[in-house]
Specification:
Helix content: 55-70%
CATH class of the largest domain: Alpha Beta
GO molecular function: DNA-binding transcription factor activity; sequence-specific DNA binding
Shape: flat
Keywords: DNA-binding, Phosphoprotein, Transcription, Transcription regulation
CATH superfamily of the largest domain: Reverse transcriptase/Diguanylate cyclase domain
CATH topology of the largest domain: Alpha-Beta Plaits
Structural class: alpha/beta
Strand content: 5-15%
Protein name: DNA-binding response regulator
Organism: Paenibacillus baekrokdamisoli
Pfam families: GGDEF_2, HTH_18, Response_reg
Distance between the termini: 110 Å
Radius of gyration: 43 Å
Length: 535
């Protein structure tokens, strides 16, 4: 905080400097002026928050300085220090917003009380100003969100128009009553990667910037408004000079290029009556974008043509599913590269590929990949770091916005190779876990072994262990445990020192009769008969 002392007498300025506890009030800078004009020059340059002024000075009087301060620095707090007990001076001090009128010689207590009052008043005003600024910022931040919701609602339900028509007129200058409108949609799926990189991956910040640029042009002469539809498309409604809509969008695109370094694509619907035709014009703009041929360089502004009905040959990814699956199971890069190249060659032969075709392939890939994961990994409890699906769901484009088949093939190849490597590693881990279970059973056959016990020990599900054990050894785990126990029992039966009940306990059976029953079932004879035969 800064303070300015204005007095033509030097000793008075020095007295004020000595009497005020500046540090206690947070005042770091104390300035001085010996007349009103010098004070005005300092005020314009330094903007002090607190001013002490005399009334009788050469040149302009203190009352003139107070009047100037009230007009040009109204938030500045003033304290008058005068040697004249003049009612008119006091009255004008109050009239011009002075905090106090102190007579010379200066009373230190009165002076510090006046300073304290002035500082507190200024801080209170500053805090109020900050709150107003914060409130204004919050309102400005919420406004776009509010209008995005309002206009999205209008697009989805034209009957909503009657309830917000007056507000649209006040906010955007939209003429009242039915009028022609035209809708344009900005294609966000072909935005140049260089533009996205400028916003460090923040899609919201990118869209916010694009909306500001679009509105800068359409709202300049109340020609329309741009908004974000359901956190997705950027939609531009035009309601003035709609026949020149394409030209306005072209000018807008020039502004986007100047600001972001690249032009974008717009699909434009036909002229319809607002509000009934709003959604129809929007759907036409969307259709224009979905029918774009992603194989060629396209016009940046493309208007709806009802006679346009492009035909395309459909190639299904499912036709290549087996080749890709076998390549993944090979665990090697070359088979995967060859299988992917076969697919890319097929796509290369297609001269027309639109967004609908790309979405169809993306859907097919999702279904196929779900089958692969079930087939390769089953219900594996191991958390897998699966490759991203960007190879089909975010199709790579070149700098002109055209489908880059070369890059697409590279990304798809990398994703499938990653999946293949995961499967090989998973298979190796599966085998390792199953052999660990075998080792555990071989050394703990005499314990109370159950499938549940083993599952808990190895943190696996019973179903997973049963299936993997059967796949690896072609027998059930329970049968394997019984077979191991019977092999151990046969060795013990060769020693006549052990009674049958002892042998049963040593191989994990607490019930002698049950042990004998299982032994006979597996070996075809009872334990006693086996012992006699062995002798």
């Amino acid at each position: 905080m800064k303070a300015l002392i204005v007095d033509d007498e030097r000793h008075v300025r020095e007295a004020i400097r000595l009497l005020v506890d500046w540090k206690a009030y947070g005042i770091e800078s104390i300035l001085e002026a010996q007349d009103a004009q010098t004070a005005i020059d300092i005020i314009e340059k330094e903007r002090p928050q607190i001013i002490f002024t005399d009334m009788m000075m050469p040149g302009k009087l203190g009352t003139e300085l107070l009047a100037w301060i009230q007009q040009h620095a109204p938030r500045t707090k003033t304290i008058v220090i005068s040697g004249h007990d003049d009612f008119d001076f006091v009255r004008k001090t109050v009239m011009y917003g002075g905090i106090d009128y102190i007579l010379k010689p200066i009373d230190p207590i009165q002076l510090n009380e006046a300073v304290s009052k002035a500082v507190a008043s200024r801080k209170q005003e500053d805090e109020g100003s900050k709150q107003e600024q914060r409130k204004s910022i919050e309102i400005n931040q919420l406004k776009p969100v509010y209008w995005n919701k309002m206009l999205t609602h209008l697009l989805d339900d034209p009957s909503y128009y009657s309830s917000i028509a007056e507000t649209l007129h006040t906010e955007f200058g939209l003429p009242t009553g039915d009028l022609p409108c035209r809708v344009a949609v900005l294609a966000t799926d072909t935005i140049n990667p260089a533009i996205r990189s400028k916003f460090a991956g923040s899609e919201d910040l990118l869209y916010f910037s694009l909306l500001n640029i679009c509105n800068e042009f359409v709202r300049k002469h109340n020609q329309g408004v741009a908004f974000r539809h359901n956190h997705g498309d950027i939609v531009v409604i035009l309601w003035k000079q709609t026949e020149k809509g394409a030209a306005l969008l072209d000018t807008m695109n020039n502004g986007i290029q100047r600001a972001l370094g690249s032009r974008l694509e717009f699909g434009v619907g036909s002229e319809r009556m607002l509000p009934a035709g709003f959604k129809q014009s929007y759907n036409e703009a969307i259709l224009v974008l979905r029918q774009r041929n992603m194989r060629v360089v396209r016009p940046r502004i493309r208007c709806f043509d009802p006679n346009e009905n492009p035909r395309q040959s459909t190639v299904h990814l499912s036709e290549y599913e087996d080749r890709l699956r076998f390549a993944i199971r090979s665990g090697k890069a070359n088979p995967i590269k060859e299988a992917v190249q076969q697919w890319i060659n097929q796509v290369e032969a297609m001269k027309y590929i639109n967004i609908e075709q790309l979405e169809l392939w993306g859907h097919e890939y999702g279904v196929i990949k779900a089958r692969w994961l079930k087939e390769l990994f089953g219900d594996s409890p191991v958390t897998l770091s699966l490759p991203s699906e960007s190879a089909f769901f975010i199709v790579p484009l070149d700098q002109d916005g055209c489908l880059s088949l070369k890059q697409w093939g590279v990304e798809l190849e990398e994703g499938l190779l990653h999946l293949s490597q995961l499967w090989v590693e998973h298979k190796r881990q599966d085998e390792h876990i199953i052999f660990d279970i075998v080792k555990y059973v071989d050394s703990h056959y005499a314990d109370d072994l159950t499938l549940q016990n083993i599952a808990e020990r190895f943190f696996l599900s019973r179903e997973y262990i049963s299936r993997k054990f059967k796949q690896q050894f072609q027998e059930n785990l329970s049968d394997y445990i019984e077979r191991i126990r019977m092999d151990k029992a046969k060795l013990l039966l060769l020693n006549p020192q052990y009674r049958i009940v002892q042998i049963a306990d040593l191989v994990g059976y607490k019930d002698e009769k049950y042990f004998s029953k299982v032994f006979k079932k597996i070996e075809g004879v009872s334990p006693n008969e086996y012992r006699k035969h062995s002798k």
